[in-house]
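Attaching the record inline, Q. Sequence:
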Amino acid sequence: MKPERAALSDAAVVVLLMVAVLLPRLLVFGVNENFYGDAVMRAELGGRWADRPHVIGSFDQGGYQFGPLHIVLLGVLTRAGGSREDAGRWLSLFAAVLTVVPLFSLTRRMFDRNAAVVACLGLAVWGIHIQCSTTAASESLSMLLIVGTTALFSRAILDDHRPSLLAAALVFNLACATRYDVWLWLPMLCLTLAVSRRMKWSVLFFVLCLAFPLAWSYGNWGDRGDPLFPFRFIDAYHRTWFPDGERLWGATSYRLQNLAFWPGTALLTLSPLVAIAGMLGLWRAWRERKELRWLVVLIVVPTALFTFRSTVTGSFVPLGRFAIKEVGLLLPFVWFGFQWAPLARIRTGLLAVAALIAVALPTWLGFFTLHREGKWEDTVRPVSPVSTNPVELMRVARFLAREVNQRGEAAILDTDAQYRDLQLAFFSGLPEDRLARYRWEIFPLRVQTAQPRFAVRIDGGGLDAVAAVEGRTLRFNGWEFTELDGFAPPFHVYRR
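Structure, as predicted:
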Protein backbone atom coordinates (compact mmCIF):
# COMPACT_ATOMS: atom_id res chain seq x y z
CA MET A 1 0.00 0.00 0.00
CA LYS A 2 1.50 3.33 -1.06
CA PRO A 3 1.76 6.07 1.56
CA GLU A 4 -0.45 9.11 0.98
CA ARG A 5 1.31 12.13 -0.43
CA ALA A 6 1.43 15.02 2.04
CA ALA A 7 -0.63 18.04 1.07
CA LEU A 8 1.18 21.26 0.30
CA SER A 9 1.37 23.71 3.16
CA ASP A 10 -0.40 27.06 2.93
CA ALA A 11 2.97 28.77 2.61
CA ALA A 12 3.91 26.62 -0.39
CA VAL A 13 0.54 27.26 -2.01
CA VAL A 14 0.97 31.02 -1.53
CA VAL A 15 4.38 30.92 -3.21
CA LEU A 16 2.94 29.04 -6.21
CA LEU A 17 0.10 31.54 -6.43
CA MET A 18 2.56 34.43 -6.35
CA VAL A 19 4.33 32.85 -9.33
CA ALA A 20 0.95 32.53 -11.08
CA VAL A 21 0.33 36.25 -10.54
CA LEU A 22 3.85 37.19 -11.64
CA LEU A 23 3.98 35.27 -14.93
CA PRO A 24 1.26 37.04 -16.97
CA ARG A 25 2.58 40.40 -15.77
CA LEU A 26 6.10 39.56 -16.88
CA LEU A 27 4.72 38.62 -20.29
CA VAL A 28 3.44 42.16 -20.89
CA PHE A 29 5.98 44.11 -18.83
CA GLY A 30 8.28 44.68 -21.80
CA VAL A 31 5.40 45.89 -23.95
CA ASN A 32 3.41 48.07 -21.58
CA GLU A 33 4.02 51.79 -21.24
CA ASN A 34 2.99 54.39 -18.70
CA PHE A 35 -0.26 55.73 -20.05
CA TYR A 36 -3.43 55.58 -17.96
CA GLY A 37 -3.82 56.09 -14.23
CA ASP A 38 -1.83 59.34 -13.99
CA ALA A 39 1.23 57.14 -14.33
CA VAL A 40 3.35 59.72 -16.13
CA MET A 41 2.57 62.56 -13.73
CA ARG A 42 3.26 60.35 -10.72
CA ALA A 43 6.57 59.24 -12.21
CA GLU A 44 7.54 62.86 -12.89
CA LEU A 45 6.65 63.92 -9.36
CA GLY A 46 8.60 60.97 -8.01
CA GLY A 47 11.59 62.11 -10.06
CA ARG A 48 11.30 65.63 -8.67
CA TRP A 49 11.19 64.23 -5.14
CA ALA A 50 14.33 62.19 -5.89
CA ASP A 51 16.12 65.42 -6.87
CA ARG A 52 15.08 67.07 -3.60
CA PRO A 53 13.90 64.60 -0.93
CA HIS A 54 11.54 66.10 1.63
CA VAL A 55 8.43 65.37 3.63
CA ILE A 56 5.36 65.95 1.46
CA GLY A 57 2.95 67.54 3.90
CA SER A 58 0.33 69.03 1.60
CA PHE A 59 -0.93 69.62 -1.93
CA ASP A 60 1.57 72.44 -2.44
CA GLN A 61 4.58 70.53 -1.11
CA GLY A 62 4.78 68.14 -4.06
CA GLY A 63 1.79 65.86 -3.60
CA TYR A 64 -0.75 67.88 -5.58
CA GLN A 65 -4.00 65.93 -5.93
CA PHE A 66 -2.23 62.61 -5.39
CA GLY A 67 -1.60 60.72 -2.17
CA PRO A 68 2.02 61.37 -1.13
CA LEU A 69 3.09 57.82 -0.21
CA HIS A 70 3.18 56.55 -3.78
CA ILE A 71 5.13 59.59 -4.96
CA VAL A 72 7.71 59.22 -2.19
CA LEU A 73 8.19 55.51 -2.94
CA LEU A 74 8.69 56.34 -6.63
CA GLY A 75 11.23 58.95 -5.61
CA VAL A 76 13.09 56.55 -3.34
CA LEU A 77 13.36 53.95 -6.11
CA THR A 78 14.46 56.59 -8.63
CA ARG A 79 17.06 57.96 -6.22
CA ALA A 80 18.30 54.39 -5.62
CA GLY A 81 19.14 54.10 -9.30
CA GLY A 82 15.88 53.12 -10.97
CA SER A 83 14.97 54.78 -14.25
CA ARG A 84 12.26 57.40 -14.16
CA GLU A 85 10.28 55.40 -16.69
CA ASP A 86 10.47 51.99 -14.99
CA ALA A 87 10.91 52.57 -11.24
CA GLY A 88 7.18 52.92 -10.69
CA ARG A 89 6.45 49.93 -12.88
CA TRP A 90 8.67 47.69 -10.76
CA LEU A 91 7.01 49.02 -7.62
CA SER A 92 3.58 48.16 -9.04
CA LEU A 93 4.72 44.69 -10.06
CA PHE A 94 6.13 44.00 -6.59
CA ALA A 95 2.91 45.20 -4.94
CA ALA A 96 0.78 43.05 -7.25
CA VAL A 97 2.67 39.86 -6.43
CA LEU A 98 2.67 40.65 -2.71
CA THR A 99 -1.13 41.14 -2.78
CA VAL A 100 -1.46 37.35 -2.94
CA VAL A 101 -0.46 37.09 0.74
CA PRO A 102 -3.30 39.14 2.29
CA LEU A 103 -5.83 37.98 -0.34
CA PHE A 104 -5.11 34.33 0.44
CA SER A 105 -5.22 34.99 4.19
CA LEU A 106 -8.49 36.94 4.00
CA THR A 107 -10.30 34.42 1.81
CA ARG A 108 -9.07 31.37 3.71
CA ARG A 109 -10.25 32.85 6.99
CA MET A 110 -13.65 33.72 5.51
CA PHE A 111 -14.18 30.41 3.71
CA ASP A 112 -11.52 27.75 3.02
CA ARG A 113 -8.34 27.08 1.09
CA ASN A 114 -10.15 26.25 -2.15
CA ALA A 115 -11.81 29.67 -2.05
CA ALA A 116 -8.44 31.31 -1.38
CA VAL A 117 -6.80 29.56 -4.33
CA VAL A 118 -9.65 30.56 -6.68
CA ALA A 119 -9.47 34.18 -5.48
CA CYS A 120 -5.73 34.41 -6.13
CA LEU A 121 -5.98 32.73 -9.53
CA GLY A 122 -8.68 35.27 -10.37
CA LEU A 123 -6.23 38.01 -9.40
CA ALA A 124 -3.59 36.43 -11.65
CA VAL A 125 -5.66 36.83 -14.83
CA TRP A 126 -7.53 40.03 -13.90
CA GLY A 127 -6.87 42.15 -16.99
CA ILE A 128 -7.12 45.67 -15.59
CA HIS A 129 -4.96 44.69 -12.62
CA ILE A 130 -2.31 43.32 -15.00
CA GLN A 131 -2.20 46.76 -16.62
CA CYS A 132 -1.98 48.55 -13.26
CA SER A 133 0.73 46.11 -12.15
CA THR A 134 2.97 47.02 -15.07
CA THR A 135 2.66 50.81 -15.07
CA ALA A 136 3.54 53.52 -12.56
CA ALA A 137 -0.11 54.04 -11.56
CA SER A 138 -1.00 53.83 -7.87
CA GLU A 139 -3.77 51.22 -8.11
CA SER A 140 -1.53 48.19 -7.59
CA LEU A 141 0.01 49.60 -4.40
CA SER A 142 -3.42 50.78 -3.27
CA MET A 143 -4.92 47.32 -3.84
CA LEU A 144 -2.17 45.71 -1.75
CA LEU A 145 -2.82 48.09 1.15
CA ILE A 146 -6.60 47.79 0.88
CA VAL A 147 -6.56 43.99 0.88
CA GLY A 148 -3.96 44.09 3.65
CA THR A 149 -6.19 46.30 5.79
CA THR A 150 -9.17 44.05 5.12
CA ALA A 151 -7.27 40.85 5.93
CA LEU A 152 -5.92 42.22 9.21
CA PHE A 153 -9.27 43.69 10.21
CA SER A 154 -10.95 40.37 9.40
CA ARG A 155 -8.55 38.51 11.64
CA ALA A 156 -9.12 41.03 14.43
CA ILE A 157 -12.90 40.63 14.51
CA LEU A 158 -13.25 36.97 13.49
CA ASP A 159 -10.45 35.68 15.74
CA ASP A 160 -10.75 38.39 18.42
CA HIS A 161 -7.06 39.23 17.81
CA ARG A 162 -6.21 42.73 19.09
CA PRO A 163 -2.67 43.01 17.62
CA SER A 164 -4.19 42.56 14.16
CA LEU A 165 -6.44 45.56 14.80
CA LEU A 166 -3.40 47.74 15.52
CA ALA A 167 -1.70 46.44 12.38
CA ALA A 168 -4.88 47.11 10.38
CA ALA A 169 -4.86 50.73 11.58
CA LEU A 170 -1.24 51.13 10.45
CA VAL A 171 -1.87 49.69 6.99
CA PHE A 172 -5.08 51.74 6.71
CA ASN A 173 -3.06 54.93 7.24
CA LEU A 174 -0.72 53.86 4.44
CA ALA A 175 -3.71 53.21 2.21
CA CYS A 176 -5.10 56.67 3.02
CA ALA A 177 -1.73 58.16 2.09
CA THR A 178 -1.92 56.43 -1.31
CA ARG A 179 -5.47 57.09 -2.52
CA TYR A 180 -8.28 59.15 -1.04
CA ASP A 181 -11.26 56.88 -1.75
CA VAL A 182 -10.30 54.55 1.09
CA TRP A 183 -10.93 57.36 3.63
CA LEU A 184 -14.61 56.50 3.28
CA TRP A 185 -13.92 53.16 4.96
CA LEU A 186 -13.10 54.64 8.37
CA PRO A 187 -16.65 55.24 9.64
CA MET A 188 -17.79 51.87 8.27
CA LEU A 189 -14.95 49.95 9.94
CA CYS A 190 -15.52 51.75 13.25
CA LEU A 191 -19.24 51.05 13.04
CA THR A 192 -18.46 47.37 12.47
CA LEU A 193 -16.51 47.28 15.74
CA ALA A 194 -19.23 49.18 17.59
CA VAL A 195 -22.00 46.89 16.34
CA SER A 196 -19.98 43.84 17.43
CA ARG A 197 -19.93 45.34 20.96
CA ARG A 198 -16.28 46.31 20.84
CA MET A 199 -16.78 49.98 21.65
CA LYS A 200 -13.31 50.47 23.16
CA TRP A 201 -11.78 48.86 20.09
CA SER A 202 -13.84 51.14 17.89
CA VAL A 203 -12.63 54.30 19.64
CA LEU A 204 -9.01 53.12 19.63
CA PHE A 205 -9.14 52.15 15.96
CA PHE A 206 -10.72 55.49 15.03
CA VAL A 207 -8.00 57.45 16.83
CA LEU A 208 -5.16 55.41 15.33
CA CYS A 209 -6.57 55.67 11.82
CA LEU A 210 -6.65 59.46 12.00
CA ALA A 211 -2.85 59.75 12.05
CA PHE A 212 -2.34 60.42 8.34
CA PRO A 213 -5.71 62.09 7.56
CA LEU A 214 -5.20 64.63 10.36
CA ALA A 215 -1.57 65.34 9.43
CA TRP A 216 -2.44 65.73 5.73
CA SER A 217 -5.45 67.93 6.50
CA TYR A 218 -3.35 70.11 8.80
CA GLY A 219 -0.73 70.60 6.08
CA ASN A 220 -3.35 71.63 3.53
CA TRP A 221 -5.02 73.92 6.05
CA GLY A 222 -1.69 75.65 6.66
CA ASP A 223 -0.80 76.03 2.98
CA ARG A 224 -4.23 76.54 1.44
CA GLY A 225 -6.48 77.52 4.33
CA ASP A 226 -8.62 74.46 3.56
CA PRO A 227 -7.89 71.10 5.24
CA LEU A 228 -9.82 69.25 2.52
CA PHE A 229 -8.38 71.17 -0.42
CA PRO A 230 -7.25 68.05 -2.41
CA PHE A 231 -10.79 66.66 -2.18
CA ARG A 232 -12.30 69.93 -3.37
CA PHE A 233 -9.75 70.14 -6.18
CA ILE A 234 -10.62 66.63 -7.41
CA ASP A 235 -14.34 67.24 -6.98
CA ALA A 236 -14.18 70.46 -8.99
CA TYR A 237 -12.26 68.67 -11.75
CA HIS A 238 -14.91 65.95 -12.02
CA ARG A 239 -17.78 68.44 -11.98
CA THR A 240 -16.14 70.29 -14.86
CA TRP A 241 -15.34 67.07 -16.72
CA PHE A 242 -18.80 65.46 -16.39
CA PRO A 243 -20.52 67.64 -19.04
CA ASP A 244 -18.02 66.37 -21.63
CA GLY A 245 -19.46 62.88 -21.23
CA GLU A 246 -23.00 64.18 -21.53
CA ARG A 247 -22.13 66.03 -24.72
CA LEU A 248 -20.50 62.92 -26.17
CA TRP A 249 -23.16 60.35 -25.26
CA GLY A 250 -26.22 62.45 -24.49
CA ALA A 251 -27.28 63.34 -20.94
CA THR A 252 -29.71 60.44 -20.38
CA SER A 253 -27.60 57.83 -22.14
CA TYR A 254 -24.44 58.83 -20.26
CA ARG A 255 -26.10 58.61 -16.86
CA LEU A 256 -27.64 55.24 -17.70
CA GLN A 257 -24.18 53.99 -18.68
CA ASN A 258 -22.85 55.20 -15.35
CA LEU A 259 -25.68 53.40 -13.54
CA ALA A 260 -24.36 50.10 -14.88
CA PHE A 261 -20.71 51.10 -14.69
CA TRP A 262 -19.52 49.21 -11.61
CA PRO A 263 -21.17 45.85 -12.38
CA GLY A 264 -20.24 46.31 -16.03
CA THR A 265 -16.60 46.85 -15.09
CA ALA A 266 -16.66 43.68 -13.01
CA LEU A 267 -18.17 41.66 -15.87
CA LEU A 268 -15.67 42.97 -18.42
CA THR A 269 -12.51 42.87 -16.32
CA LEU A 270 -12.98 39.82 -14.09
CA SER A 271 -14.78 38.04 -16.97
CA PRO A 272 -18.55 37.38 -16.91
CA LEU A 273 -18.75 34.06 -15.04
CA VAL A 274 -16.17 35.03 -12.42
CA ALA A 275 -17.91 38.36 -11.81
CA ILE A 276 -21.36 36.77 -11.58
CA ALA A 277 -20.05 34.16 -9.17
CA GLY A 278 -18.49 36.91 -7.05
CA MET A 279 -21.77 38.85 -6.96
CA LEU A 280 -23.74 35.71 -6.07
CA GLY A 281 -21.21 34.93 -3.36
CA LEU A 282 -21.57 38.46 -2.02
CA TRP A 283 -25.36 38.12 -1.86
CA ARG A 284 -25.10 34.67 -0.31
CA ALA A 285 -22.66 35.93 2.33
CA TRP A 286 -25.07 38.74 3.27
CA ARG A 287 -27.90 36.25 3.75
CA GLU A 288 -26.06 33.33 5.34
CA ARG A 289 -22.90 34.67 6.99
CA LYS A 290 -23.73 37.58 9.27
CA GLU A 291 -20.13 37.81 10.46
CA LEU A 292 -19.12 38.80 6.90
CA ARG A 293 -21.70 41.52 6.35
CA TRP A 294 -19.18 44.24 7.22
CA LEU A 295 -17.14 43.34 4.13
CA VAL A 296 -20.26 43.36 1.96
CA VAL A 297 -20.93 46.89 3.23
CA LEU A 298 -17.37 47.98 2.37
CA ILE A 299 -18.00 46.92 -1.22
CA VAL A 300 -21.61 48.04 -1.70
CA VAL A 301 -21.67 51.44 0.04
CA PRO A 302 -18.81 53.11 -1.94
CA THR A 303 -20.23 51.60 -5.14
CA ALA A 304 -23.66 53.05 -4.38
CA LEU A 305 -22.22 56.44 -3.40
CA PHE A 306 -20.12 56.90 -6.54
CA THR A 307 -22.95 55.56 -8.71
CA PHE A 308 -25.26 58.17 -7.15
CA ARG A 309 -22.75 60.92 -7.92
CA SER A 310 -22.27 59.75 -11.51
CA THR A 311 -25.99 59.39 -12.25
CA VAL A 312 -28.06 61.70 -10.04
CA THR A 313 -25.82 64.63 -9.08
CA GLY A 314 -23.62 64.55 -12.20
CA SER A 315 -20.49 65.27 -10.17
CA PHE A 316 -18.26 62.25 -10.81
CA VAL A 317 -16.83 60.68 -13.97
CA PRO A 318 -16.36 56.93 -13.43
CA LEU A 319 -13.24 55.25 -14.81
CA GLY A 320 -12.34 51.58 -14.76
CA ARG A 321 -9.46 52.06 -12.33
CA PHE A 322 -11.78 53.81 -9.86
CA ALA A 323 -13.71 50.55 -9.50
CA ILE A 324 -10.68 48.37 -8.80
CA LYS A 325 -11.13 48.38 -5.02
CA GLU A 326 -14.73 47.17 -5.07
CA VAL A 327 -14.31 44.81 -8.02
CA GLY A 328 -11.16 43.28 -6.54
CA LEU A 329 -12.91 42.53 -3.25
CA LEU A 330 -15.38 40.35 -5.14
CA LEU A 331 -12.59 37.78 -5.61
CA PRO A 332 -12.88 36.27 -2.10
CA PHE A 333 -16.57 35.52 -2.79
CA VAL A 334 -16.13 33.79 -6.17
CA TRP A 335 -15.79 30.22 -4.86
CA PHE A 336 -18.65 30.77 -2.42
CA GLY A 337 -20.82 31.91 -5.33
CA PHE A 338 -19.99 28.81 -7.38
CA GLN A 339 -21.13 26.63 -4.47
CA TRP A 340 -24.71 27.63 -5.25
CA ALA A 341 -24.66 25.26 -8.22
CA PRO A 342 -26.69 22.17 -7.20
CA LEU A 343 -24.34 19.34 -8.19
CA ALA A 344 -20.59 18.95 -7.82
CA ARG A 345 -20.28 17.98 -11.50
CA ILE A 346 -22.09 21.16 -12.55
CA ARG A 347 -19.91 23.28 -10.24
CA THR A 348 -16.75 21.74 -11.68
CA GLY A 349 -17.93 22.35 -15.24
CA LEU A 350 -18.88 25.94 -14.52
CA LEU A 351 -15.55 26.58 -12.85
CA ALA A 352 -13.66 25.12 -15.83
CA VAL A 353 -15.59 27.27 -18.32
CA ALA A 354 -15.13 30.34 -16.11
CA ALA A 355 -11.38 29.72 -15.94
CA LEU A 356 -11.17 29.38 -19.72
CA ILE A 357 -13.05 32.65 -20.32
CA ALA A 358 -11.08 34.42 -17.57
CA VAL A 359 -7.87 33.64 -19.45
CA ALA A 360 -9.21 34.12 -22.98
CA LEU A 361 -10.87 37.51 -22.42
CA PRO A 362 -7.82 39.50 -21.22
CA THR A 363 -5.66 37.71 -23.80
CA TRP A 364 -7.98 38.86 -26.58
CA LEU A 365 -8.22 42.37 -25.16
CA GLY A 366 -4.43 42.57 -25.02
CA PHE A 367 -3.96 41.68 -28.67
CA PHE A 368 -6.94 43.82 -29.71
CA THR A 369 -5.46 47.00 -28.18
CA LEU A 370 -1.73 46.38 -28.73
CA HIS A 371 -0.42 49.34 -30.78
CA ARG A 372 -3.87 49.73 -32.35
CA GLU A 373 -6.14 52.75 -32.44
CA GLY A 374 -9.80 53.11 -33.25
CA LYS A 375 -13.16 53.69 -31.63
CA TRP A 376 -13.47 50.28 -30.01
CA GLU A 377 -9.77 49.89 -29.29
CA ASP A 378 -9.74 53.22 -27.44
CA THR A 379 -12.94 52.30 -25.59
CA VAL A 380 -11.62 49.07 -24.07
CA ARG A 381 -7.96 50.10 -23.75
CA PRO A 382 -8.38 51.38 -20.14
CA VAL A 383 -9.36 47.87 -18.97
CA SER A 384 -7.00 45.92 -21.23
CA PRO A 385 -3.97 44.16 -19.73
CA VAL A 386 -1.88 45.97 -22.36
CA SER A 387 -1.24 49.70 -22.01
CA THR A 388 0.47 51.34 -24.99
CA ASN A 389 0.59 54.94 -26.18
CA PRO A 390 -0.55 55.95 -29.68
CA VAL A 391 2.01 55.00 -32.31
CA GLU A 392 2.31 58.54 -33.73
CA LEU A 393 2.81 60.00 -30.25
CA MET A 394 5.66 57.62 -29.51
CA ARG A 395 7.25 58.40 -32.88
CA VAL A 396 7.47 62.07 -31.86
CA ALA A 397 8.66 61.20 -28.35
CA ARG A 398 11.45 58.99 -29.69
CA PHE A 399 12.53 61.73 -32.10
CA LEU A 400 12.76 64.19 -29.21
CA ALA A 401 14.74 61.69 -27.18
CA ARG A 402 17.13 60.88 -30.03
CA GLU A 403 17.55 64.13 -31.97
CA VAL A 404 16.91 66.72 -29.27
CA ASN A 405 17.72 65.31 -25.86
CA GLN A 406 20.80 63.27 -26.74
CA ARG A 407 22.25 66.22 -28.67
CA GLY A 408 21.74 68.68 -25.85
CA GLU A 409 19.13 70.70 -27.72
CA ALA A 410 15.90 72.21 -26.37
CA ALA A 411 12.31 72.13 -27.63
CA ILE A 412 8.99 73.93 -27.36
CA LEU A 413 6.10 71.61 -26.47
CA ASP A 414 2.49 72.50 -27.22
CA THR A 415 -0.33 71.77 -24.75
CA ASP A 416 -3.24 69.46 -25.43
CA ALA A 417 -6.69 68.93 -23.90
CA GLN A 418 -6.08 65.16 -23.93
CA TYR A 419 -2.81 65.57 -22.00
CA ARG A 420 -0.78 64.02 -24.81
CA ASP A 421 1.85 66.68 -24.19
CA LEU A 422 2.51 65.08 -20.79
CA GLN A 423 3.26 61.77 -22.49
CA LEU A 424 5.56 63.47 -25.02
CA ALA A 425 7.50 65.29 -22.32
CA PHE A 426 7.90 62.16 -20.22
CA PHE A 427 9.08 59.79 -22.94
CA SER A 428 11.35 62.40 -24.53
CA GLY A 429 13.47 62.37 -21.40
CA LEU A 430 14.18 66.09 -21.84
CA PRO A 431 15.05 67.81 -18.56
CA GLU A 432 12.85 70.70 -17.49
CA ASP A 433 15.49 73.34 -18.24
CA ARG A 434 15.55 72.29 -21.93
CA LEU A 435 11.83 71.96 -22.40
CA ALA A 436 9.56 75.00 -22.85
CA ARG A 437 6.14 73.54 -22.05
CA TYR A 438 3.21 75.74 -22.99
CA ARG A 439 1.24 74.09 -20.18
CA TRP A 440 3.43 75.66 -17.48
CA GLU A 441 3.24 79.28 -16.33
CA ILE A 442 7.00 79.64 -16.76
CA PHE A 443 6.72 78.98 -20.50
CA PRO A 444 7.86 82.52 -21.59
CA LEU A 445 10.84 82.40 -19.25
CA ARG A 446 11.84 78.92 -20.40
CA VAL A 447 11.65 80.01 -24.05
CA GLN A 448 14.14 82.78 -23.36
CA THR A 449 16.56 80.70 -21.29
CA ALA A 450 16.49 77.48 -23.34
CA GLN A 451 16.51 79.10 -26.81
CA PRO A 452 14.84 76.01 -28.33
CA ARG A 453 15.66 74.95 -31.89
CA PHE A 454 12.76 72.49 -32.15
CA ALA A 455 9.01 72.82 -31.60
CA VAL A 456 6.14 70.33 -31.38
CA ARG A 457 2.68 71.60 -32.25
CA ILE A 458 -0.52 69.62 -31.67
CA ASP A 459 -3.63 70.32 -33.76
CA GLY A 460 -6.07 72.33 -31.66
CA GLY A 461 -3.42 72.98 -29.00
CA GLY A 462 -2.73 76.12 -27.06
CA LEU A 463 0.32 77.12 -29.08
CA ASP A 464 -1.93 78.25 -31.93
CA ALA A 465 -2.90 81.26 -29.81
CA VAL A 466 0.64 82.65 -29.72
CA ALA A 467 2.19 81.31 -32.93
CA ALA A 468 1.38 81.74 -36.61
CA VAL A 469 1.20 78.74 -38.94
CA GLU A 470 1.57 79.30 -42.67
CA GLY A 471 1.77 76.06 -44.62
CA ARG A 472 4.82 74.23 -43.31
CA THR A 473 6.20 77.26 -41.49
CA LEU A 474 5.68 78.13 -37.83
CA ARG A 475 6.49 81.68 -36.69
CA PHE A 476 6.89 82.30 -32.99
CA ASN A 477 8.85 84.79 -30.85
CA GLY A 478 10.45 86.29 -33.94
CA TRP A 479 11.74 82.89 -34.99
CA GLU A 480 10.85 80.85 -38.05
CA PHE A 481 10.50 77.07 -37.82
CA THR A 482 10.20 74.66 -40.74
CA GLU A 483 8.08 71.49 -40.43
CA LEU A 484 9.92 68.17 -40.66
CA ASP A 485 8.70 65.14 -42.61
CA GLY A 486 7.89 61.76 -41.08
CA PHE A 487 5.17 62.73 -38.59
CA ALA A 488 1.40 62.49 -38.85
CA PRO A 489 -1.39 64.68 -37.45
CA PRO A 490 -2.25 65.73 -34.86
CA PHE A 491 1.51 66.08 -34.26
CA HIS A 492 3.77 68.49 -36.14
CA VAL A 493 7.49 68.75 -35.50
CA TYR A 494 9.49 71.85 -36.55
CA ARG A 495 13.17 72.85 -36.61
CA ARG A 496 14.34 76.45 -36.34
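Residues 344-369 form the longest helix (26 residues). Residues 52 and 75 are 9 Å apart (CA to CA).

More tomorrow.
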